[in-house]
Amino acid sequence: MTRRPRRNHSPAFKAKVALAALKGDRTMSELATQFDLHPNQIKQWKDQLLEGVAGVFDDKPGSKEPEIDITSLHAKIGQLTLENDFLSGALDKAGLLPGAKK
């Protein structure tokens, strides 16, 4: 049995398949044959559609705040602080900072 290469389906195709499964006029086996997919994949997309459908009628679309990675922000602050300290020390030694002794 030859393995088929991995396929990436567009969101529009996934929605089309999930809506066809939601209609219920054909069996999963028939849909799998029609769309050349595994029935488990169709069931998964149908479940995702049902989970996300409530978001369509949400009063505040897009109100979800993006998650902020505090650890990476602290690391970046530390890195920039070190760079600042290094550069100010180097400029001070070179006498290029205002008020530096010559």
Summary keywords:
102 residues; mainly alpha; 4 helices; 0% strand; elongated; WH-like_DNA-bd_sf; Transposase_8; sequence-specific DNA binding
As residue ranges, the low-confidence spans are: none
The fraction of residues in strands falls at under 5%
Question: How confident overall, as mean pLDDT?
Answer: 87
Strand tally, please?
A: 0
Percent helix range = 55-70%
Largest sheet: none
GO molecular function: sequence-specific DNA binding; transposase activity
GO biological process, one term: DNA transposition
InterPro entries: Transposase_8, Trp_repressor/repl_initiator, WH-like_DNA-bd_sf
Pfam family, one: HTH_Tnp_1
Q: Which helices and strands appear, and what pairs or packs with what?
A:
Blueprint: H1 11-23, H2 28-35, H3 39-52, H4 70-94
Helix pairs in contact: 1-3
Structure summarized in a few sentences:
It comes from Oceanicella actignis. The chain has helices spanning 11-23, 28-35, 39-52, 70-94.
Task: Please tell me about this protein's structure.
The chain is mostly helical and 102 residues long. The protein has a domain at 10-57. The chain is 59% helix and 0% strand. The chain is built from four helices and no strands. The longest helix is centred in the C-terminal third of the chain and has 25 residues, at 70-94.
